[in-house]
Amino acid sequence: MFNSIPCQPIAQVTGIFLCEREMLVLQGVTKQIGGLTAVSNVDLAIKTDEIVGLVGPNGAGKTTLLNIISGILPPTAGRVTFLGEDITGLKADRICHRGIAKTFQIAKSFPDLSAEQCVMIGLLFGNKHAPGMHEAKKESAIILDEVNFPMEKAGTLIRNLNVVELKRLQLARALACHPKLLLLDELTTGLNPKESKEAVGLIKQIRDRGTSILIIEHVMSVIMGVSDRIIVLDHGEKIADGRPYEVVNNQRVIDTYLGDIDAF
Ligand SMILES: Nc1ncnc2c1ncn2[C@@H]1O[C@H](COP(=O)(O)OP(=O)(O)OP(=O)(O)O)[C@@H](O)[C@H]1O
Ligand SMILES: [Mg+2]
Fold this sequence. Notes:
Blueprint: E1 9-13, E2 16-19, E3 22-33, E4 36-47, E5 51-55, H1 62-69, E6 77-82, E7 85-86, H2 92-98, E8 100-102, H3 115-125, H4 133-146, H5 163-176, E9 181-185, H6 193-208, E10 212-216, H7 220-226, E11 229-234, E12 237-242, H8 244-248, H9 251-256
Parallel strand pairs: 5-10, 5-11, 8-9, 9-10
Antiparallel strand pairs: 1-2, 3-4, 3-6, 6-7, 11-12
Helix pairs in contact: 3-4, 3-5, 4-5
The structure holds adenosine-5'-triphosphate and magnesium ion.
């Protein structure tokens, strides 16, 4: 529904117009790792209140792109603009304070902290204006409950959590940073179909509360169920960007990606 609202140019950033609702804009983003071009000249935009799916074969550059947006890796070339400001190459903590939080493809965290302490770290260090310890403790319980983390395990050490609990905890830690844009790297991988369905509902709820989402997933039923728009990467290049039904019917996408996987 959001895609039907036309963008109006309101500001000019080095030669391109920013649309009113475009919160994140990537221009010509490239990442060389050794001799390999992991991400090649990618342009994309994420609008306010949008859920965008990012898909592509293994090694396509999806995680690298999220790492560039979140400041974990600097790009070799190109520009990242967030809420009208150039954030290219800023450190991850600065970018987090500006409103971009991320979950990781491999769910791991400080093994000797409890789940509650992990979320408190997000609250205390992921926000420009950190709450006090007492408030952080109270809010961490609310966030853990929101992501359906089993509350009886709030005091359990992270090393003793199973993969589903770790995934929920990662999401809780990211939400604790109160992001305007949430980057999810394979959040539902490893979940059973019922858990994946719950995760899709939760992702939509998060968007409905005002957080835009860029989500990497391999499970096409999840991506189709959740995305307003889908972007496809292959060998670091963007090969498609459109509404879900357009993208899954795109011949190049079928040839390079969908034809190879048990997608649906
Ligand atoms: N730190 C690194 N050192 C060397 N090569 C790397 C590094 N990180 C990524 N690459 C390479 O960059 C390319 C893109 O990797 P990336 O992890 O971004 O892909 P992906 O699309 O997330 O894949 P997957 O679906 O398997 O998670 C791959 O060829 C990968 O081997
Ligand atoms: Mg990846």
